[in-house]
Amino acid sequence: MKVLFFGDINGKSGRRALAKVLPDLRREHKPDLVVANAENLAHGKGLTLSTFREVLDAGVDFLTSGNHVFDKPEGREVFSQYADRIIRPANFPDNLPGKGYQILSARSQRVAFLNLNGLVFMEKQFDYGEIQNPFLKLNELLDRADLREVKIRILDFHAEATSEKRAMGFWADGRMSAVLGTHTHVPTADAHVLPRGTGYLTDLGMVGAADSVIGVQKDTAIERLLASPSEERRAPLLIDESDVTEIDFAVLTIDEESGKCQNISSFRLVR
Q: Does residue 222 lie in a domain region?
């Protein structure tokens, strides 16, 4: 089983870049499934029906998300209309729309995608109520009968701290086919298979403007960082929509009998 997984698609630049490169990447890597993180689809924060449909039309099979997924009101409607094409972090409160995992079929094989949100350094980045501990939530999910029967299981761990992501990799090692980090928009160079057979990457990176600060116009990001924390009116962060983009993704090969990751490689294209 081969899976191509993109980092956070950031705004219009990211959506256009994805649509441009995906046909060639499909021909080159021949994935059975193409997956991406969708929480920044609509101008860098949240998603809408039109932006979601755009990436589906581009050829993405399934989407994960993270802390910004409900920042736009239409995000809830996306989960209503496309419940089988997107998941949100499973450790968010149960009163939110959507599911935290989904089981798909590819090549007559069942493949489970799970989504969890980290807690370290993220206390002020969402306001959905009480967030469950992601490590304990993973245990709970893997104890469910439908997931126990699936051998290929891939987790998008949407988190800020590299240490929390690394710890999740070892926590899941041998129980997941892969643990892929998202959220920071900066790709890491540590794609490898952990001792018990779980493919691991601290962060996939993003699909968005290359000459930017994680997808934000660099001048506005620097201006904001220069401002005093006590200033009431800090510079707004403006999404960079330039044409030169980076496309960050990983390709995983997973043994269908054991569910173990045979190979994981990460890529960064600038186009």
A: no
